Amino acid sequence: MAIKIACGQLEIISGRPDLNTQNILRMISRARNEDVDLLLLPELAVPGYLVGDLWEQSDFLKDCETFGQQIIGASQGITVVFGNVAVDWRRKNRDGHVRKYNAAFVARDGKLIPTGQGLDFVAKTMLPSYRQFDDPRYFSGQETLMKDRRISLKNGWGPVPVTIQGKEYRIGILICEDGWTENYPVSVPALLKQDGAEILCNISSSPFTLEKNQKRHRIFGQQAKDLHLPLVYCNQTGVQNTGKNIFAFDGQSCVYGPDGMVKAAAPMFEEKLLIFSWDRENEKIRARSAEDEMIVTEDDEAEIVYRTIRYGTEQFLKQTGIRRMVLGASGGIDSAVAAALFTDILGPQQVLLVNMPSRYNSELTKNLAQQLAENLKCCYTIVPINESVSNTVEQLYTPIHNYSSNRDFKVELNGLIYENIQARDRGSRILAGFSAAFKGGVSCNANKAEIAVGYGTFYGDLIGLFCPLGDLWKYQVYALGRYINEKVFKTEVIPEKIFSIRPSAELSEEQTVGTGGDPLIYEYHDYLLRSFVENWDKASPAEIIRHYMNHSLEKFLGCVDGTVARIFPSHKAFCQDLEYWYSLFTGLAVAKRIQAPPILSLSRRAFGTDFRESQMTSYFSTEYKVMKEKLLLQERLF
Amino acid sequence: MAIKIACGQLEIISGRPDLNTQNILRMISRARNEDVDLLLLPELAVPGYLVGDLWEQSDFLKDCETFGQQIIGASQGITVVFGNVAVDWRRKNRDGHVRKYNAAFVARDGKLIPTGQGLDFVAKTMLPSYRQFDDPRYFSGQETLMKDRRISLKNGWGPVPVTIQGKEYRIGILICEDGWTENYPVSVPALLKQDGAEILCNISSSPFTLEKNQKRHRIFGQQAKDLHLPLVYCNQTGVQNTGKNIFAFDGQSCVYGPDGMVKAAAPMFEEKLLIFSWDRENEKIRARSAEDEMIVTEDDEAEIVYRTIRYGTEQFLKQTGIRRMVLGASGGIDSAVAAALFTDILGPQQVLLVNMPSRYNSELTKNLAQQLAENLKCCYTIVPINESVSNTVEQLYTPIHNYSSNRDFKVELNGLIYENIQARDRGSRILAGFSAAFKGGVSCNANKAEIAVGYGTFYGDLIGLFCPLGDLWKYQVYALGRYINEKVFKTEVIPEKIFSIRPSAELSEEQTVGTGGDPLIYEYHDYLLRSFVENWDKASPAEIIRHYMNHSLEKFLGCVDGTVARIFPSHKAFCQDLEYWYSLFTGLAVAKRIQAPPILSLSRRAFGTDFRESQMTSYFSTEYKVMKEKLLLQERLF
Q: 0.95 exceeded by the pTM?
């Protein structure tokens, strides 16, 4: 006989136990109406996951407990597994804060079901402390719980016995990371199986990351297969942030059969009650409809990126109460893609594009900006900055009185200063002004390569509510632009010419379109910088030069063969370039990132909380220096 | 017979193993020349402590290992205990990165001394993950090390046997947090004593925090006394940062006798080879000079705050290569204190004060700004912003074309928009311009109360290289101002009037000096906000209202009795005020902090990495709402 199981793929709002509980109660009602026997709800469904140090406010914890009681009270006739914070008020964590667990509670008929050994809940065992995750900062693990309660570690990971339709089922409960067994010394799923679990239920709070779902299908599928158990994965949707990073939670809850195959799956970024039946005797799992058997593939990266950015942006704007956006429109690809994105989400009349020409802006880019606005049907205006920039320059020449020498003097301005005055005039004077007056947020259109090396001006083009494209390399921005034209608007909203002109900041004679462009050579630097940031074992200048000497650099970086030789006429030029960008990446760019807007996270390593860094002097290791010397000596000799 | 022990209180530079190693080698030479038998060097002395995710770059780790070998090689005739990262290249941490330990190595005569059980080093056991600390993100602990090497946990915390002058001494090595035994389930010092340690040596990387040293003397003194062992504490100096926070490491290395009393101590913020003798037989510890017996007291908070800010600022400027500073001088206390600070550090000719009057600035404050510059003998200039602000307003009225309706429209500006235009004009146009032209950093003069509620303008007064006063409440800024006049300059450099006028932003008719001032009532809000931020168990609106109802609020907050009744005419006014500021604190202010400059940390909780937060909607708990309703009902009824 089959029982009905469901994943309640809910949208969770961090820090709002009141709203989340309302949402949970609605989901329980729906499930009860559908005769669901066992309903899973996500990890920390009551408080939300990314709430920062709010975990250190006891009243917030008490509030979450109170709402937890409401959920328990609503479990008449249905077994509900839900995530909430569990507090042991009599004990303290190592930092002196009250002892907390990231816990799963199991409720039925208005009461908690004991999870074994006299415990009321299951605690997360594996507490991630990498990327944006700070679990050990707040939570103790299942091991600590057992030590506290003097339970033998041998008995602590047993499944929870639950009676459904008169029969006992032994449910192995995992919380998120507990299932990611790759590098952990113990495997919680294996321990649960060993102790008699008949089904594994993983409740998660897992944000979208490019390629993570494929990895999950591989690891979780293998887990189900190896242990010959069905495995249910219940994830949440919604958008939560850590201050510097915004994360889109993709849902995609699903169930794997004992053969490791997905039997039913919920969509990305949508709330869903995913119902399926499980017949323990004949090991059959059946989705309710054929539609529920589809899983999302990531064959088209641009598509998955667009869906994630669109959802993340839409939700983040909703949370911050922003209904309009203001963008500087330069005629370049980054601002064009961002403009199209916001137009798609908010509608064209809610998007204001501002072109702010100085004497260095070409007719070409000015026309492209206007064309873009026209294609998107946005709001558009032109505000020249020449006069204001001249006025600023003049004011900076105001005599300064030195009270030590009792003499007056004047400062001197050079080209770079002049460039930055233009950028700040656009950002902090005009765009920030329009932001308030148009009642919209400013979009920071920096891409990941620019953010990596600090190619952008403090309080100039680096201002904004957030960076929707800040986790995309330049090549990904181009691909996204193509996707937007072809699949989103299905017409050339981003003028073709924008794809083909060489990117340029147009801040000086040398940088105008036609005469020059960005100093970043994206077909190489995108990939070089990526290796510094995204490689799990971060690449170093020493590693880069080793590969360069072994002619394996393009393969290592993943860029097109021949690129390196084409760009660099000599070893010396190669080393100079490497040192220049690495110094910026670890130098001034760090200072800029500290004050940069939040970044919408997509990759497995976005700048922000996900990539922690200190302002330090740029450093090249002894090994690097030795290899470089060897290389340059070679060049001088031959 | 007595042996000579020394603490090498070194200045450590994060991420610079090359420079740190040079410094360490010099210190070893000096100690050898002084016939020191046992030299202690700080935790992670080779790489530095706060290097962020650079721990994930294998080449950096290898480099640190190489430098560690140099230090071992330099230990001829002297026993050296030094902190470095230890790597187990064959194993992985839980996140897939190579296994690392925050380790202490013991070297003599060019070789490592085994630390027992076949191990080469002692690993830190207690890995802090509170405040700015992220140890578990990077390091495994002593327990993991022992499990890996199949050593019984019973034998793992033994002291290291070291032969000095022909006799064996058993040295119990602790790394920083291992000694802070308050809330940990096991006490490493007690385990070491139990296994026969004759002396405890704690090597640390411990930044200054107000009141921490008193606590350390209490805890460490008690530890030495309870275990009846001498305890040596070797800390570092220097300045390291976590991006958002700058920390001054205060040194203050010292030795506690078995009676718990300090026998010798090094000064704050200075490199020092602190030498003392220890006679094991008669338990005598003797400082080399009377001067070395002095410890720093914190009787005068302003003094200790000034010393820390001065040191932290000086070192941070040195590290970032900044030799000049630019400040907006408003005639208020915050900018005056900052101006005096930078003048004291850099000299008056390196400090540029810019007064930027609009139509709302009073003659009084303009004169005060000028007087300040004159008193400090700084560079000074006046740049009016009226014209530029008018021009900006005019430009924001440029017609905008709506390509959907094909009509033009104009935005509308209100008072608040106009205020922020002024603030941004000053910050991003003038000060940032002078920053480049004068080749100096901009000082962000925001104090902690302003940062807490976001009282400041994005890209306006919130710009800057860093916030030297960002961890001080307004009352602390005033105290610092007094201290600067009385003890630093010993003359009234900050004009007396600046202390007595009511603080005001002077951005509108309502806010000019005389007619009005800041909406923050510092004698109450300083303390209210402090309870939200610095209370270890963070205060909540519910807790505040509870205390208010029990007439215990002033006592709870630490402000003057009678303040609350004086300020609020009714319960309703009290609740409105509480909700207004708590909503800002947890709302818009979070967004501002995400993009704010780094803060020099002083308190036990500074905004930044030390206080992690997400942008969420402001939330008031059920309990708060119930209590408020009760309170307001009471008021309506009586």
A: yes
Residue B347: closest C-alpha in chain A = A404
List strands edge to edge, sheet with A167-175. A160-164, A167-175, A199-203, A231-234, A254-256, A262-265
Inspect the interface and report whether the beta carbons of B401 and A420 lie closer than 8 Å. no
* Chain A residue numbers touching B147 (CB-CB < 8 A): 185
Q: In this structure, what DSSP letter does residue B249 have? A: E
Distances (CA, A) of B347 to B325, B350, B352: 10, 6, 11
The DSSP-derived string for B563-579 is: HHHHH-SSHHHHHHHHH
The per-residue DSSP string of B494-538 comes to S-HHHHHSPP----SGGGSTTT---S--HHHHHHHHHHHHTSSS-
Q: Distances in Å between the alpha carbon of B516 and those of A365, B497, B504, B576?
A: 48, 16, 7, 20
- ipTM for the assembly: 0.96
Q: Which residues contact B455 (CB under 8 A, 6 or more apart)?
A: B449, B518, B519, B520
What is the model's pLDDT at position A505? 76
pLDDT in tens, A416-464: 899 999 999 999 999 999 999 999 999 999 999 999 999 999 999 999 9
pLDDT score for B511: 65
Whether residue B379 and residue A402 make contact (CB cut-off 8 A), yes or no, is yes
- Taking CA–CA distances from A595, the nearest residue in chain B reads B595
List b or e across B526-539, with b for residues whose CB sees 16 or more CB atoms inside 10 angstroms: bbbbbbbbbbeebb
Judged by CB atoms closer than 8 Å, whether chains meet at A459 and B432 is answered as yes
Residue partners of A42: CB distance under 8 A and separation at least 6 = A8, A9, A10, A12, A82, A83, A203, A204, A205, A234, A235, A236
Instruction: Tell me the C-alpha distance between A401 and A410, whole Å.
Output: 9
User: How large is the average pLDDT for residues A253-270?
Assistant: 96
Task: Report how far residue A256's alpha carbon sits from residue A263's, in angstroms, rounded to the nearest whole number.
Answer: 6
Disruptive mutation site among B21, B594, B605, B628 for chain A (greatest number of A CBs within 10 Å)? B594
Give the three-class secondary structure for A454.
coil
Q: Residues near A551 by Cβ (< 8 Å), separated by ≥ 6?
A: none
**Residues of chain B found within 8 Å of residue A18, distances taken between Cβ atoms:** 619, 622
Give the single-character DSSP code of B471.
Answer: T
Both tokens assigned to B213 = 């040293």
Q: Select the residue of B404, B609, B621 nearest A60 (Cβ to Cβ).
A: B621
Nearest CA in chain A to B351: A402
Question: Which 8-state DSSP code applies to residue A466?
Answer: B
For residue B512, name the pLDDT band (cuts at 50, 70, 90). low
Bridging pattern class, strands A199-203 and A167-175 = parallel
Query: To the nearest whole angstrom, how far is the Cα of B542 from the nearest Cα of chain A?
Result: 7
**CA B198 to CA B200: how far, in whole Å?**
7
Placement of tokens 């309506």 in the chain: B636
- Look at A63 and B623 and tell me if their CB atoms are within 8 Å: yes
Distance CA B266, CA B261 (A): 15
User: Are the CB atoms for A615 and B56 separated by under 8 Å?
Assistant: no
For residues B277-300, average pLDDT: 89
Cβ atoms within 10 A of the Cβ of B212, count?
Answer: 16
- Which residues in chain A are contacts of B438 at CB distance < 8 A? 411
Q: Can you give B392-415 as a three-state secondary structure string?
A: HHHHHCCCEEECCCCEEECCCCCH
Comparing A516-530, A577-591, A615-629, B618-632, which segment has the lowest mean pLDDT? A516-530
Residues 6+ apart with CB under 8 A from B473: B447, B448, B449, B522, B526, B527, B529, B530
**Beta-bridge mates of residue A8:** A273
- CA–CA distance, B71 with B605 (Å, rounded to integer): 36
Contact check, Cβ <8 Å, B537/A320? no
DSSP-based helix, strand, coil % in chain B, nearest 5: 40, 20, 40
**Partners of B326 in the beta sheet?**
B352, B442
